Amino acid sequence: MQLLFHHVALIVQDYETSKTFYCEVLGLKILAENYREERASWKLDLALADGGLLELFSFPNAPSRPSRPEACGLRHLAFRVEDIDAAILHLEAKGVEVEPVRIDPYTQARYTFFQDPDGLPLELYEVSNALK
Known about the structure:
Elements: E1 7-12, H1 15-25, E2 29-36, E3 41-47, E4 53-58, E5 77-81, H2 84-93, E6 102-103, E7 110-115, E8 121-126
Parallel strand pairs: 1-4, 5-8
Antiparallel strand pairs: 2-3, 3-4, 6-7, 7-8
């Protein structure tokens, strides 16, 4: 069996806020947006540049996700970038607070974290063309 990455699904507290963040701040492209009346829920399909997908769902009264201290389950969602400095400048220009850059002790790659509107940790991981 060969497994290939297809998508990550997130449940968000405020659909419009998260839609704005992922589309306008992170620049993801909308593939489909559907309101599911029977669930009082939105489903938004977003495309990453490499073909990966991110699904955003809204559900009424969804419980908050424990984030700190780290809880079992999804630890963070990481995005590969070629120029972490440019990505950080872009995020900061959009009002997103970004942690100081760190160095991965195993790969020597540079990385940093920021949060989505619900406090989900998101990572930028700098990968050169040679390491893709």
